[in-house]
């Protein structure tokens, strides 16, 4: 273990060199690495290594200043005219005796006349 840790001024706690912290934190960021196992290998507390890793990530991934990007706005093209006229909506219901005839949208007038005549007779 090459930590070169020195006793700090608070209750005999160790102060680790910045390059040691950075190296271990970088190692702890690698996929598949167990932070607890890495901490045990270097005889340090796992919570301390988690803290170093969190601090390293905060520095590496700190938000950058926002930048404005150029935008080209094109005028919207006029909508193409409809090819087909929309069928009129709605329905007509005709009751003749017990028969009910429902007519949806457009219907051929001659055919409707024939159906209604056959129902009356």
Overview of this protein structure:
The chain has 121 residues and is α+β, with helices and mostly antiparallel strands. It has 2 domains: 6-60; 91-120, no CATH class. 37% of the residues lie in helices and 13% in strands. It contains 4 helices and 4 strands, in the order E-E-H-H-H-E-E-H. The strands form 2 sheets. The protein has a two-stranded antiparallel sheet. A two-stranded antiparallel ribbon has the order 3-4. Strand 1 and strand 2 form a beta hairpin. This is Transposase family protein. One of its GO terms (biological process) is DNA transposition. It holds the Pfam family HTH_Tnp_1.
Radius of gyration: 40 Å
In total, the number of domains comes to 2
Helical stretch tally = 4
Unreliable stretches: none
Helix content: 25-40%
Distance between the termini: 108 Å
Protein name: Transposase family protein
InterPro entries: Homeodomain-like_sf, Transposase_8
GO molecular function, one term: DNA binding
């Amino acid at each position: 273990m090459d930590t070169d840790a020195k006793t700090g001024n608070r209750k005999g706690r160790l102060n680790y060199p910045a390059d040691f912290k950075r190296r271990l934190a970088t190692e702890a960021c690698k996929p598949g690495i167990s932070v607890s196992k890495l901490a045990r290998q270097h005889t340090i507390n796992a919570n301390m290594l988690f803290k170093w890793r969190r601090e390293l990530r905060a520095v590496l991934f700190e938000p950058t200043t926002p930048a404005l990007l150029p935008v080209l706005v094109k005028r919207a093209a006029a909508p193409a005219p409809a090819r087909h006229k929309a069928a009129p909506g709605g329905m007509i219901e005709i009751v003749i005796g017990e028969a009910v005839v429902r007519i949806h949208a457009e219907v051929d007038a001659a055919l409707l006349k024939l159906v209604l005549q056959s129902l009356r007779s």
